[in-house]
């Protein structure tokens, strides 16, 4: 479940902020969900949580079961190439055929550790030639191994002959030793290769003993994804807590609904967003919705407390005040008295004008049916009593003909990180930023008046701060002309 950071700042007083989770796994952007109800959602999620809990317990119990084949640590040990070479040397030096390792020169041992390939006879010949050149002389040796001449064409001394014989014996031993430890290295390499093959097919104790490692890993990954899809992210939502001192504990389990309210004219602009509880009344949400039309009507002394929510086929009328009007009554009367016209309009809304024309030409066996609209009192309806579709646009109407689209965007169970005070709901999680125009004359102060058809104004409508308006339109406290309309300016 995703989360969002947002806070609402109101004038006056210090604000305290709390973090709440946001979002849920069932919302698909740009899509409308099937018809559902809050109790149905609670039941489905409850059973899914029970199934998930059973799967986690089963997975935990399976991880404790021993495998059918026990594998020792030595069999799973990873052997490096350097360890193979060292082990080959130790085994080669212990072999009686090669002799004591103390007789092997250190330079040959180091050379053997660095080079794992066989040394060809040509390379040995090159090494012997280099050693002879290092002595500073060249000699011609007869078939029986006795020297014929030196670099100075003189007989070699007896000590020189002994040194050369000793060097030939060392070369022979070195050649024998090279072949022995290389064979050992190849044998250990084959052992290591077999160990790698065995490890690839090994079954570890931490996985289910009835399946291979790859199958266990895939099953665990699928179950883990299902668990993490229901977890919250690390980010948090910050909203202003309620000003009320009353504390009403939440009832569990309860559902939180995310409700969006859009602008009455700019229908794609979201103005507010709320978190409401499934057991709350619709009137509690209506009292929190802010619209500039309400402020204007109050200022004009013509405020109307009437209004309704149209959700699916249900008109939820606000009739709490005695002066309230049932807005749905003329609509229901029209549906009853003009059924054919209403059916035609409804078909156009549902199928589109083009399909309606095609149907009139080609004909159709199926006739559309009007929904069975009915009216209820808003203050008696809870969100858990409604049938709705996630992502679908519904209607909120007030002040006669000021209409807003409302969308129930998401639905989830109450989280421990949610605000635990029921009196704080509906909780505002988004509020559009208020924008104020500046005075069109001074371009400094915020506008307080707006005029229309003002002959001395540079634009229509024209916005004025209090000082500029009176300087332009008044002299000695009297209005200079009155052939224009003036209104108090409110923020947009």
Automatic annotation (TrEMBL):
Gene Ontology molecular functions: DNA binding
Pfam families in the cross-refs: SNAPC3
Compositional bias (Basic residues): 162-172
Residue numbers spanned by region Disordered: 96-178
The keyword Transcription appears for this protein: yes
Keywords tagged on the record: DNA-binding, Nucleus, Transcription, Transcription regulation
A single cellular component GO annotation: nucleus
Residue spans of biased composition, Basic and acidic residues class: 105-136
Biased composition (Polar residues): 137-154
UniProt entry tagged with the keyword DNA-binding: yes
Compartment annotation: Nucleus
PANTHER family: SNRNA-ACTIVATING PROTEIN COMPLEX SUBUNIT 3 (PTHR13421)
Family membership: Belongs to the SNAPC3/SRD2 family.
Name of the protein this chain belongs to: snRNA-activating protein complex subunit
């Amino acid at each position: 479940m995703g989360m969002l950071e947002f806070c609402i700042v109101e004038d006056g007083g210090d604000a305290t902020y709390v973090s709440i989770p946001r979002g849920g796994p069932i919302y698909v952007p740009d899509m409308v969900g099937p018809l559902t109800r809050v109790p149905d959602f609670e039941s489905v999620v409850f059973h899914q949580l029970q199934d998930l809990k059973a799967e986690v317990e089963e997975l935990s119990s399976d991880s404790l079961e021993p495998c059918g084949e026990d594998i020792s640590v030595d069999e799973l040990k990873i052997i490096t190439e350097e360890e193979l070479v060292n082990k080959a040397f130790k085994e080669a030096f212990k072999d009686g055929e090669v002799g004591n390792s103390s007789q092997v020169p250190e330079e040959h041992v180091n050379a053997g550790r660095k080079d794992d390939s066989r040394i060809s006879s040509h390379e040995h010949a090159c090494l012997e030639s280099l050693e002879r050149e290092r002595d500073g002389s060249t000699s011609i040796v007869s078939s029986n191994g006795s020297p014929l001449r030196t670099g100075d064409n003189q007989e070699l001394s007896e000590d020189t002959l002994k040194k050369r014989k000793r060097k030939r014996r060392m070369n022979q031993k070195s050649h024998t030793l090279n072949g022995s430890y290389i064979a050992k290295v190849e044998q250990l390499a084959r052992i290591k290769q077999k160990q790698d093959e065995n490890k690839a097919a090994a079954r570890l104790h931490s996985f289910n003993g009835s399946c291979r490692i790859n199958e266990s890993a895939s099953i665990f990954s699928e179950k883990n994804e299902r668990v993490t899809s229901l977890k919250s992210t690390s980010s948090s939502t910050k909203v202003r807590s309620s000003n009320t001192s009353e504390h009403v504990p939440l009832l569990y389990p309860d559902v939180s609904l995310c409700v969006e309210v859009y602008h009455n004219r700019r229908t794609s602009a979201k103005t507010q967003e709320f978190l409401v509880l499934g057991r709350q009344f619709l009137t509690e949400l209506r009292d929190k919705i802010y619209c500039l039309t309400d402020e204007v009507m109050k200022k004009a002394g013509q405020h109307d407390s009437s209004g309704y929510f149209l959700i699916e086929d249900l008109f939820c009328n606000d009739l709490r005040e005695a002066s309230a009007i049932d807005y749905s009554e003329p609509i229901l009367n029209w549906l009853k008295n003009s059924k054919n016209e209403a059916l035609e309009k409804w078909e156009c809304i549902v199928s589109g004008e083009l399909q309606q024309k095609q149907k009139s030409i080609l004909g159709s066996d199926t006739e559309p049916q009007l929904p069975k609209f009915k009216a209820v009192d808003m203050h008696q309806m809870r969100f858990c009593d409604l049938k709705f579709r996630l992502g679908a646009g519904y209607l909120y109407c007030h002040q006669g003909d000021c209409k807003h689209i409302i969308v129930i965007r998401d639905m989830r169970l109450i989280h421990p990180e949610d605000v635990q005070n029921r009196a704080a709901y509906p909780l505002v999680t988004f509020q559009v930023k208020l924008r104020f125009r500046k005075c069109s004359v001074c371009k400094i102060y915020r506008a307080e008046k707006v005029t229309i058809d003002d002959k001395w104004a540079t634009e229509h409508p024209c916005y004025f701060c209090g000082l500029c308006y009176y300087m332009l339109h008044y002299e000695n406290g009297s209005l200079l002309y009155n052939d224009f309309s003036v209104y108090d300016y409110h923020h947009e």
